[in-house]
Amino acid sequence: MPADYKKMKMLRRSRVVWGSWALWKPRIVFWAGALAIGVISVGFARAADAAQHLFKAATAVHPLAYLLPLLLTPAGFVLCSYLAARLFPNSQGSGIPQAIAARHLNDDLDRKRLLSLRLAFGKILLTVVGLFCGASIGREGPTVQVGSSIMLAVARFGGMAQARGLILAGSAAGIAAAFNTPLAGIVFAIEEMSRSYQSRANGIVLTAVILSGLAALGLSGSYNYFGSTHVMPVGAREWSLVLFCGVGGGALGALFSAMALRLGQRLRRWAHPDPVKRMLLVAGLCGLAVAVIGVASGGHTFGTGYEQARGAIEGQALPWYFFLTKLAASFLSMLSGIPGGIFAPSLSVGAGLGSSIGQLLGVSIPLAAILGMAGYFAGVVQAPMTAFVIILEMTGDHEAVIPIMAVAMIGYVTSRLISREPLYHGLSRVFIAAALRARRAEDHASPA
Asked: Hey, which of 63, 80, 205, 216 would disulfide with 177, CB 3.0 to 4.6 Å?
């Protein structure tokens, strides 16, 4: 009798536990957050595409409309810079450094200064405005900050203590939904966001990627970001692309990264006495330079560069100078401090570099473009696994698995020899310092 009584008591307890709101609330909130990332990512993508189409249409209406960017682009840069400084502080730039910085902070209020639903809204709004004004930026990095912000809100609303793991999950879900690349989202979280494998977080990351991916699939269907290609090296000259694209892309990516970190640091020091006014001046000048480059290149450097990269992968050779002009426009857009990412522009630069190398060697343009993307992207972010997986998933070119992998690794090694500090992690220190300064200012202002 006592044994039966104990069994019945344990059964009642288990029913109470499994049927309790306290158990299911964090799970339901987490699932809803992951699905929301997928839905918002799709909406963000459509808004970004619409903004680019509007800009392109506005500059093609009148024979002299191509001069419109000389007014619209600098004005848009200044507006985005002002709104980012006044209404959405810490929304500047890609958004990936903010997510990395938030994982290094211990205080929830410090994290909230870098990741919040308010910042997520501002990030989406200002990135779309930037694209409407012709900025050479992407939406994929901002989607990481948006996804991380949603997951940090999930941690608060659901009463969950796994803030770092949820930020990691939000980042992975953002990349997966933005590119429709679930594997790349997971690898990005492990390699770039955490720089280590965390077995305790793998279930959270995987669940978030699955749910956000399902939401995105339901709205957009299954697709490859750059379509589907089937090219591979067949001769010695095509195999030589592995070396040329790896070394060339890695070196160019390292120079972009190193210059962005050094010039950014100098600009912040110069702007320190009056940061808002001086950064508005920088944004206006960068916007004017981006407009001049865009007009001179026939409009090819405005926006994400998606159309140019896809054209190269489909076999349309890009002008030999395209990768230089696109790199300059992307660098100036990043230096201006307006919200916007570098993922898509970097892939475009890499495709342009590969196209130029392919034309020089007289080999397959699609293969050269894909390998150029792998080499340059690995050189910029110094994350070879992410570069390899994301390009493989975006192009569906499984025949070139080994060449893409080799180029990504060569690009990474070359980049590390030139610039030891990864771009996103170098930028994350800026946001860590900003969050800590804001806390000290609040503590100093509060009464004792």
From this structure: 216
- Asked if the 236-432 domain carries CATH number 1.10.3080.10, the reply is yes
| DSSP letters spanning 11-78 | HHHHHHHHT-HHHHHHHHHHHHHHHHHHHHHHHHHHHHHHHHHHHHHHTTSSTTGGGTHHHHHHHHHH
Torsions phi, psi of 388, nearest 5? Answer: -65, -50
pTM for this model (two decimals): 0.89
Report the pLDDT averaged over residues 121-130.
Answer: 96
As a whole number of angstroms, the distance between CA 127 and CA 129 comes to 5
How far is residue 84 from each of residues 87, 126, 430, measured CA to CA in Å? 6, 8, 16
- Measured from the Cβ of residue 401, the count of other Cβ atoms closer than 10 Å reads 12
User: Whose CA is closest to 136, among 338, 369, 395, 377?
Assistant: 338
Q: At what angle do helices 275-296 and 322-335 cross, to 10 degrees?
A: 160
Per residue in 16-38, pLDDT (tens digit) is 455 565 677 778 888 888 899 99
CATH topology for 20-220? Clc chloride channel (1.10.3080)
Q: Domain segments of the chain: what residues?
A: 20-220, 236-432
423-445 and 96-104 helices cross at what angle (nearest 10)? 60
Where residue 225 falls among pLDDT bands split at 50, 70, 90? confident
